[in-house]
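Q: Could you write out the predicted structure for this multi-component system? I'm mainly interested in how the pieces pack against one another.
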Amino acid sequence: MFGYLVRRIATSLAILFAVSFAVYAIFALLPFDPAALTCGKNCNNPAIIEANRIRLGYDIPFWQQYIVFLGGLFAGRNFGEGAAAIHCPAPSLGYSFNQHECVTTLIGRALPVTASLAIGAMILWLIVGITLGVVAARFRGRSADTASTIFVLIGTSLPTFLTGLLLLVFVVIKWKIIPFPSGNYTPLLENPFEWAQILFLPWVTLAFASAALYTRFVRNAVIETLSEDFIRTARAKGLSEKVILRKHTLRAALAPIATMAGLDFAGLLGGAILTEKVFNLPGLGRLSLSAVIEYDLPIIVGTTLLSAAIVITMNLIVDVLYALIDPRVRVAS
Amino acid sequence: MSLLEVADLSVQFRTPDGIVKAVDGVSFKVDRGETLAIVGESGSGKTVTNLAIMGLLPNKIANISGSAKLDTGGGSVDLLKIPSSDLRKIRGRDVAMIFQDPMSALHPYYTIGHQIIEAHQVHNQCSEEDSAKRAIELLELVGISDASKRLNAFPHQFSGGMRQRVMIAMALVNNPKVLIADEPTTALDVTVQAQIMKLLADLQKELGMAMILITHDLGVVAGSADRINVMYAGKIVESADVFELFANPQMPYTHGLLASIPRVDRPQLQRLETIPGQPPSLISLPAGCAFAPRCSRKSEVSGSACDLTMPALVEVSTGHSSRCHLVGSVIK
């Protein structure tokens, strides 16, 4: 297991390195002049543009830029010289001249918002999805199963922004149960109650579609597992249906669900753009979206790299988890 | 009474295409220490018969009637009538079952030790250590060396034959009165088949339990069965002592099965006999004898009795009954 982990981490680092180069190359080779973009849309002062080009380090060849970028990741980086220099400490992902802040600082502020949103939503959709899926499978063909099918249809066909808007209209505006989202975010440790109040509707919105999808997957996985020969063996032993469902069926049925949940979670951590936009949450999705609109290249490079790193890490975690759940994977690795 | 007495057992499945009569009026008895073989083609109802006795058929789609009385030592119980919670206490303790495919019958995520211990713990109030001791004892009994270490092995670390041994150990962990073996060697190599059959025969003698051996291979039962029930289209068509059945088959179907066994003492160039045609659909069974469309001796019966009436299971000699209009005239 240890050797396997070391090998997997080494591969992950190699992939991350390749991704960083690819991302940097794509943005460096785009037909935009990042230096020109830094001085505003109607800027036509070549002196300022040239000065910014040197300050941001866009005056050197592309491969040198990449090496400086990598160096900044490990050692931090200065933009400009002398008293006017701006220092972005390691891990530096660059400096955004639109927002006048280091990209790492911006991400550091947005990531907890997205993480809070993603973790809460995932817990919610896993609880609902697994419970409903198991109940539907257990009472297959009966009214509970039909009800879950209706939920699945609604959940998968309602787009996220519509769910979010409907919740806003009814829960916030009509019934006034929760105050209108102000666009401010309260960290969990500062005020847990406010934190939960701000995030509750976004959680529900984000979890709704996934819960429906997971209900369907869990239902099918449980039904499929219940027809396995080893379940018949468990019945022949004289085990109760409760033990058969909880111990013999769920572990086998939920193994693929764990993989799915890990990857979905990684995708969400990159930013839940629609939900963040609808509920005005200052998360990674909103940061990326505004960066794309404003051609803020350092932020785009930074958030893309972060998403890639998260996906690669979650993949690793999922694989280790799978090996813990399924002994056959352990031996093969 | 006998240890297990099955009387007039019928199983019907409701399917979208109609009602499937998988088992139709099957009766048999098994005594302590006896091996009863149930032989027939795929779909003849032999597995369904035993799954019904074990209560392992989905009761949503299966309609079961008849009785299966088991002598538990403290009086007889009808396995088909008792509530499922009571049946669960009998399953795995008094009646155990081993299945056709050992590759899929064991849970892939749990160690074999865990699975055997679990089978013991359901029916016994004892510590896990005691159950582990019992598991080791059983693994040694079925011929798995280094048993205490193997407890921590997972099924995928075993070969097919070894897995079937584990299944047998698991089935025997509670000293069952009846062991139902559903084609226990079908999925295994020929050399391993012989080992497993010998193991089952030895264990049965040692433990004195009754065994119901389900198979489609008459060659497999020749060496180990006491009695044979031949099933066709959900009915028992012939039932006899093993020597009597091989020497003196009364039903043309049994005769065909016997003739289709390859034998080394036959002339090399002689073709192996086959039974032409297919078993009938269990949804629309013919009015007469279900075997009539494939029967080579139909013409010997006067009139069209074979097509019109189902022959009764009649006793030909002591302990030998057959279901054929030709009964009495020995088939050669």
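A: Regarding packing and overall arrangement: The mean pLDDT of chain A is 87.
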